[in-house]
Amino acid sequence: MDHHWVAKAWLSDVGLPQYSQAFHNHLIDGRVLNSLTRRDLERHLNITKKFHQALQARRIQCEHQNADPLVWTAHRVMKWIRDIDLKEFAESLLNSGVHGAVMVLDPTFNTDTMATVLGIPSSKHMVRRHLVEEMKTLIGQASPKARNGRDLSCHSSYGSLPREVRDHTPPRAEGSPIRGYTSIEVTNV
Which class is domain 3-63? Predict the structure, then answer.
């Protein structure tokens, strides 16, 4: 976030375009924006209204809450991916078009789609399972109407052996104990 974007786009988006010139003159970029205190806002940028100063504090609080994924930008989704310990896959979201509204509202978007976009190989079952649990928690916080009853749970292949191993498993012998037990014996085990 360079100072041009902060001064023009961001201030306009949050309803405070009157401070655009001061932010531009002081070269306030995203990094500086995160470190501004109320005193800095008042002394250097002439933001004297307490409500306008509070906006900055609230923005910082919002950055660290997973409250409403519906309105997340692609960069906020990337931050969430880093926060759930999948930082090595976060950069894959650049230019992917995945943002909060897609995650919550698109009925075809599920954990498989997210794993594919992130570039998580299908052989990394534990990583995919972790993503499933985190997405269930996150999307579960979104309104039930927005989810449209979608099942975000993992598919059966996540909990079992990989397909290539299952396909090469030899068939059971005719006298195999599995085929020889009756249902009564199995329940007594």
Answer: mainly alpha
pLDDT of residue 11: 80
Quote the pLDDT of residue 92: 92
Model confidence at 117, in pLDDT bands (50, 70, 90)?
A: very high
Q: Kindly state which CATH superfamily the domain 69-167 is placed in.
A: Transcription Factor, Ets-1 (1.10.150.50)
CA quadruple 12, 18, 21, 24: dihedral positive or negative?
Answer: negative
Distance between CA 127 and CA 111 in Å, rounded? 11
Which residue in this structure is represented by tokens 């995945």? 98
- Whether 18 and 47 have beta carbons less than 8 Å apart is answered as no
Question: What is the Cα 140 distance to its own chain's centre?
Answer: 12
* pLDDT, tens only, 31-77: 887 778 888 888 888 888 877 777 666 666 666 666 788 888 888 89
In the chain, DSSP finds a helix count (H) and a strand count (E) of: 16, 0
The burial class, CB within 10 Å (0-12 / 13-18 / 19+), for 159 is exposed
Residue 183 has pLDDT above 70, yes or no: no
Residue of 42, 62, 47 lying closest to 17 (CA atoms): 47
Which helix (H) or strand (E) segment holds residue 56: the answer is helix 50-63
Start and end residues for every CATH 1.10.150.50 domain found in the chain: 3-63, 69-167
